[in-house]
Design a protein that fits this description.
Blueprint (H helix, E strand, L loop, with lengths): L5 E7 L6 H9 L6 E7 L6 H11 L3 E5 L5 H12 L4 E4 L5 E2 L3 H11 L3 E11 L16 H7 L12 E3 H6 L10 H9 L4 E13 L5 H4 L1 H19 L7 H12 L9 H14 L7 H21 L7 H10 L1 H21 L1
Parallel strand pairs: 1-2, 1-4, 2-3, 6-8
Antiparallel strand pairs: 4-7, 5-8, 6-7
Helix pairs in contact: 10-11, 11-13, 12-14, 13-14
């Protein structure tokens, strides 16, 4: 057998309601050189029957049956060990891949050989497959992604392609049942470059039976624990309380004022960014853009929010750690107000 370029890995537990459209979306890819490892994680519905029926129709499908339910994390590691492709493509049973997904991702990887972890933008769909909201775009560059990964997930799990060899040396942490991808990306980004395509190439199911919805609280709690560990590596003397982490996460994910911002949350974000931005390997143009957006965000928040007050610590950050971008943004805001007054 020839070695495929891509191994698509999907683990399913009781996924009969959505599995058909997910399988079809992979089999209809414009890039056909792949194997499709379909793992039935001891389903009690018709999932196993469906998988074997499809395997009989298309030789690229490799059916795997777990004798007992071992969970998504262990199943994914099992699939990666069985894979023969240069790249691993993730896919979930309630998601849909656009026909050109693999082709466009592989083209990007061919053009950017330093990238070993690549995601895409995505649409969210309901149980009927109807798009629920506008396209969601994650940060595109390695520098942005490494900033986001400290406190939030910069990849849609079912959109990623990653290097199989790197994944074999850095498998999913099997002690983590929910949010295993968030933890894994942090380790992979230490040994390879990450990127995201801004084109939406997957449709992600969002419905009441989805694992991340049914176990949302457990996933968030696990995520907070991962974030605390990452924050301690950057700012060992920080006091990383859950409420502060939630505020920081909300700030980083948004370009504009968000609810419940506090001076403490902003002081922590700017302290973290100050440490992060000192790394020599970062793209300094992107670092400047992130810094400018953070300063714009906090200044707009200070001028528009009754809850956020200018504390001494926050003022010290703005005037001493980031004096130039702060003055630039203040001048821009002043010019906008003057122009508005002039027009009125």
């Amino acid at each position: 057998m020839t070695t495929p370029t891509v191994s698509v890995v999907m683990s399913v537990h009781n996924g009969e309601d959505f599995l058909h459209r997910a399988i079809v979306s992979i089999l209809q890819q414009t890039w056909g050189d792949f194997e499709f490892i379909l793992i039935d994680d001891a389903s009690t519905d018709a999932t196993a029957t469906m998988i074997h029926a499809w395997a009989n129709k298309d030789r690229r499908i490799i059916p795997v049956v777990n004798e007992s339910n071992i969970g998504l994390t262990r199943s994914l590691n099992k699939g990666i060990r069985l894979a023969r492709g240069r790249w691993i493509a993730r896919m979930d049973a309630d998601d849909i891949a656009r026909p050109e997904r693999l082709e466009k991702q592989l083209q990007f990887l061919a053009d950017h050989p330093s990238v070993g972890l690549l995601g895409t933008a995505a649409w969210l769909i309901d149980a009927e497959g109807v798009v629920k909201e506008p396209c969601h775009i994650n940060p595109a560059t390695h520098t942005e992604i490494c900033w986001w990964i400290i406190l939030t997930n910069p990849f849609f799990h079912a959109s990623v392609l990653f290097d199989r060899t790197i994944a074999l040396n850095n498998p999913y942490d099997e002690s983590i049942r929910y949010g295993q991808d968030f933890e894994l990306w942090g380790r992979l980004l230490q040994v390879t470059q990450g990127a995201n395509l801004t084109q939406p190439l997957v449709q992600l199911g969002r419905h009441e039976n989805r694992l991340s919805v049914r176990h949302g609280k457990e996933q968030l709690d696990q995520g907070i624990s991962i974030m605390q560990k990452r924050l301690l590596t950057w700012v060992p003397d920080g006091h990383w309380e859950t409420d502060t982490i939630r505020q920081m996460r909300q700030i980083i994910q948004s370009d504009w004022p968000t609810p419940h911002e506090t001076s403490k949350g902003w002081e922590c974000v700017l302290t973290l960014f100050s440490r992060y931005s000192r790394q020599p390997h970062l793209d300094q143009i992107i670092v400047k853009q992130i810094r400018q957006q953070l300063i714009r965000h906090v200044l707009v928040s200070l001028s528009s929010s009754k809850e956020l007050q200018l504390s001494f610590g926050l003022m010290k950050h703005l005037l001493f750690r980031f004096p130039l971008p702060t003055m630039e943004e203040l001048i821009k805001q002043g010019q906008k107000k003057m122009a508005s007054c002039w027009r009125s």
